[in-house]
Amino acid sequence: MARTCCWGGLTLLILLLHCSVFITQQLPTVSAQVDSELGDAANLLKQATDIIKTKNYGDALGYLNDAIEADPKLSEAYRHRAYVLRHLCRYEESDLNYKKFLELKPGTVVAEKELSQLVQAQNALNLAFNSFESGDIDKALEYIDKVVLVFSPGCSKAKLLKVKLLLAKNDYSSAISETGYILKENENNLDALLLRGRAYYYLSDHDVALRHFQKGLRSDPEHVELKKTYFGLKNLLKKTKSAEDNVEKGKLRLAVEDFKAALALDPSHTAHNVHLHLGLCKVLVKLGRGKDAVNSCSEALDIDGELIEALTQRGEAKLLIEDWEGAVDDLKNAGQRSPQDMHIREALMRAEKSLKLSKRKDWYKILGVSRTSSVAEIKRAYKKLALQWHPDKNVDNREEAEAQFREIAAAYEVLGDEDKRVRYDRGEDIEDMGMGGGGGGGFNPFGAGGQQYTFHFEGGGFPGGFGFNF
């Protein structure tokens, strides 16, 4: 019995010694693990801060997440993560991290200042979007440039909104530059590819625009906006090509319809539409549709007032509608810009001649006959009008009758003479030819001082053998 107790005590002693050794061996291992984790957290934080300097915020965020996981009480990791999240305009997450840091390090002035900047940037971004939607483009740009991208330079939402604002201002070159920076960070950013493609599109650099749309669609074939813009451009190019082909084939009426269809696709695409308007104007001039041609060329000139060909074509169109002064103005303007162009010079000569002719008396109209009337028809018309406006038959309105009779006599003086009529039809200067013509120094059938006289026409009296005694 005594031996049994002795052995039992010895066994217990051996067990206690083993436990003591085990505990002694394990304690340093646990302490080393804790020290290692703390060291890893500090190392991860250092790597993150180095990456932040390169503005590679995405990678920095990964290291900061790992550092906080390794040491949840590493205050600087929260502050740096808040800073990175603010730069990426992930404002709600950033706010939480700043508040966590201030819990661990209350009263830290730098963190409080950065938190204030976060609030400013967040408010400015919201105001920028609101201004954009309301059409206040300049105000929206001001919020983006002066606040959001100052405190959140890595904010992709702000960068993309800025590009949209630049497109709205028709500042396509700047939009291309801004999207270039975005695509350097991520060459497959679909929004940036879409916006950059649109900038090239509105500069009428369609091949480059198509390449951007195609690259985006390779990444996401079902992207709604990329598909819509890509196929819209393809359709525009197809309609434009069809119009040009029909012009070459002489199918002018079909060309008119194609030009109109192309213009209807995107009225805001002025860089391309200016050429569509000009093409349509030229076809309408060929078809003799002067009024429509003037409108089309005017549309082209509203876009580009320096377009010489549009001025020339509008001048030609105005000749068709007998707007002689307008034609001269347009063709003179075009000629001054291109003095060596013989076509413009010839068109201007025609316009000036037509203008001059328009200002002289239209003897045919006065006699009420056409330009193809025979001599006999002219004489009959003259006889009828002369009898109608005989002053003795118009006692109550003698002044008007005398004026009308002068016009009638002058018209017959020119049109009743074959040589004078030919020269008149050619547009020669014969203003003093005829009887009176409304100007000074002409023939006066009523004499001077109201004296009576006998009015005889060449060939012996009034046509048909009548003589008038006044």
Automatic annotation (TrEMBL):
Keywords: Endoplasmic reticulum, Repeat, Signal, TPR repeat. Residues 362-428 form the J domain. TPR repeats lie at residues 190-223. GO terms for cellular component: endoplasmic reticulum lumen. May play a role in protein folding in the endoplasmic reticulum. It comes from the Eukaryota. The keyword Lipid metabolism does not apply. Residues 1-32 form the signal peptide. Pfam families: DnaJ, TPR_16. The gene is ATJ15. Interacts with BIP1. SMART domains: DnaJ, TPR. InterPro entries: DnaJ_domain, DnaJ_domain_CS, J_dom_sf, TPR-like_helical_dom_sf, TPR_rpt. This is Chaperone protein dnaJ 15. It is found in: Endoplasmic reticulum lumen.
